[in-house]
Specification:
Layout (H helix, E strand, L loop, with lengths): L1 E9 L6 H10 L5 E8 L3 H10 L4 E5 L3 H10 L2 E4 L8 H8 L4 E4 L2 H4 L9 E3 L4 H13 L1 H18 L2 H12 L2
């Protein structure tokens, strides 16, 4: 079973989880599961959409952070399909866990990732491109491994507590 994880937040329209569900419905692969972590006012609509499109979706609801990271580690890919973000914490958690990322090309993401190196970018609202990126990762385990490794290295270099301390030392001196 190829597992796609998304959400890891409040299920709000800005997160465009509906777009992920529609994109997953387009992917021509058997044994595909969409894991949606989080809860919110959109959940009933999203569950109904997944059923109507015959997408195998598991709605985990709200889960504590240690459990969320465990779920994320089991995923084959993480999708961030937001229309906009502040600091995309779920994306950083995916990088930390070594999960390859597909994300919308928005400023908060492009400031962190490099397309084709540490993640795959899709245009905001482009469900065909999102489906294509997922399909590409399903069929290319080597690409998944490369993105996962590069993403984890990026996280280790720039987003750990040690990395923040190094940055502070550079700014303020030792």
């Amino acid at each position: 079973m190829f597992k796609i994880a998304t959400g890891f937040s409040e299920l709000l329209p800005v997160k465009n989880i509906a777009g992920v569900i529609r994109a997953v419905a387009r992917v021509k692969t058997k044994n595909l599961a969409l894991w949606i972590v989080g809860d919110g006012r959109e959940r009933d609509k999203l569950e109904s959409l997944a059923r109507s499109l015959r997408v195998e979706a598991r709605f985990w609801g709200r889960v504590p952070n240690p459990r969320a990271r465990e779920i994320l580690r089991q995923a084959d890919v993480f999708v961030l399909n937001s229309f906009h973000e502040g600091m995309p914490h779920a994306l950083l958690e995916a990088l930390a866990e070594g999960v390859p990322v597909v994300a919308t090309r928005i400023p908060a993401v492009t400031e962190i990732l490099t397309d084709q190196v540490t993640g795959l970018f899709v245009d905001v609202g482009d469900e065909r491109s999102l489906a294509g990126a997922i399909q590409r990762l399903v069929g290319k385990p080597g690409l998944r491994a490369k993105l996962a490794q590069n993403g984890r290295q990026l996280f280790q270099k720039n987003f750990t507590w040690e990395a923040h301390l190094r940055q502070l030392e550079r700014v303020f001196g030792k």
